[in-house]
Amino acid sequence: MSQIIKLATPLTEEAVSLLKSGDQVSISGVLYTARDAAHKRLVDLLDQGKPLPFDISGAVIYYVGPSPAKPGRVVGSAGPTTSYRMDAYSELLMEVGMKGMIGKGKRAPDVVDAMVKHKAVYFAAIGGAAALIARSIKSVEIVAYEDLGPEAVRRMVVEDFQAVVINDVHGADLYQMGQEKYRIA
Amino acid sequence: MREIDVAEITEAVRQMSQTANFDLGKDVIRAFEWGLETEESATGKAIFKALIENAMIARDEKVPMCQDTGFSVVFVDMGQDVHLVGGSLEAAINEGVRRGYEEGFLRKSICDPFTRANTKDNTPAVVITQIVDGDRVKLIMAPKGGGSENMARVTMLTPSGGKKAVMDFIVQRCQEAGSNPCPPVIVGAAVGGTPEKAAILAKRALLRQIGSQNPDPELAEMEAELMTRINNLGMGPQGLGGRNYALAVHLDKHPCHIATLPLAVQICCHASRHKETIL
Asked: Which member of A11, A85, B9, B134 has the greatest number of CB atoms within 10 A?
């Protein structure tokens, strides 16, 4: 395992370009949460030429629908959801400046190509390690679409959020690389 | 005829909604420990370590191990000598889900298939009832997350394909599922019956204790071969590469029509949640 790379959000094109598939990263700063329903609304806004409810420039979107926070806590459990459901929307968000996505699972080839074109990366967090991941989330506020409940867009401040680079700006894919290494024909 | 008040069912479901989401089964934790010991990939080992830590936090702090606290699937094995009183069975189960999910700060994830409007209380549950001998009611609460549910498939194979076609389909399903269902996973599959029968048997096969022996020697042999073939794909924990993609493969079979060979494959993420109460 390589050394852990510290990243601060918003991500710059320079920071993103240095990342390679397989790099372990520790992210601090702001993440915006969105799942399928929120993505649809964000992309509808872009289609209508309207502004997004948060600053997308250099932003990292975390695909998560947290469980409700217990009293005295900022968030419930909050692990990544499966990313392919966002594939249809991701390129448009990259076009307007999104630099990072956090989820789990493989992305479609056109999304991987779009990451190369727009210089963005896709990270995975450990799916199902939601109680553990929640410990790196320091504050949460809803910024849009409260009616979507767990799927509302939230602004999360995180400290040392652990993730791994799956797809880098060169088109590499850690899932493919990792599996090839351990495959027994 | 033994009488059982449905309020007892509501209470059992309320409790199990929470305990299932907070308290991962010992068999799963043992499987994580085995994975940590045997995994060749350093990343894979780190994942097993994180999953054990996650399970401990969830149990100790009574928080859900996964934010996706699942569709509430409830198996009811209803003794034929039981008479339920005080209300309807399904309403009682749904009330238990409603209370359990609200009180336990569990995520409500059930919505209309078209409008996607959330029902806001995680109901209705999916209730799978069978009438059995005796005067007891066995309730199994098995919340299941959407990510791994999306990887399930039911297929109607051609009988000439036989065992080979069955095994090939299961292995291919895992390969296609890849990292999506949050591996390490448990694979449940059922051959035979009708498409709906196979799907229910496969779901129920997921509940078998990890590490337990299949009583049918033929199926036990197939399970062992499938474990090897699936894990040899090299996908490993979280699909990032490694030796342990499947923690277990559980098979079941049922007689089928002379013209058919139904197969259902259900994949469960490592948050393999199920609790049982006998009334």
From this structure: B9
Contacts of A149 in chain B (CB under 8 A): 108, 118, 120
| Chain B environment of A127 (Cβ under 8 Å) | 147, 179, 182, 238, 269
Chain B contacts in chain A segment 18-37 (CB below 8 A): 37
Q: Where are the domains of chain B?
A: 2-20+65-143, 146-271
* Domains, chain A, with CATH or none: 4-182 (3.20.130.10)
Among candidates B107, B109, B270 on the partner chain, residue whose Cβ is nearest the Cβ of A128: B270
Instruction: Show the DSSP H helices in chain B as ranges.
Output: 6-22, 26-38, 42-61, 89-103, 146-149, 162-177, 195-205, 217-231
Residue-wise pLDDT tens for chain B (279 aa)? Answer: 899 999 999 999 999 999 999 999 999 999 999 999 999 999 999 999 999 999 999 999 999 999 999 999 999 999 999 999 999 999 999 999 999 999 999 999 999 999 988 999 999 999 999 999 999 999 999 999 999 999 999 999 999 999 999 999 999 999 999 999 999 999 999 999 999 999 999 999 999 999 999 999 999 999 999 999 999 999 999 999 999 999 999 999 999 999 999 999 999 999 999 999 999
Evaluate whether ipTM surpasses 0.95: no
Q: What are the residues whose beta carbons fall under 8 Å from the beta carbon of B228, sequence distance 6 or more?
A: none
User: How far is it, in rounded angstroms, from Cα A87 to Cα B139?
Assistant: 39
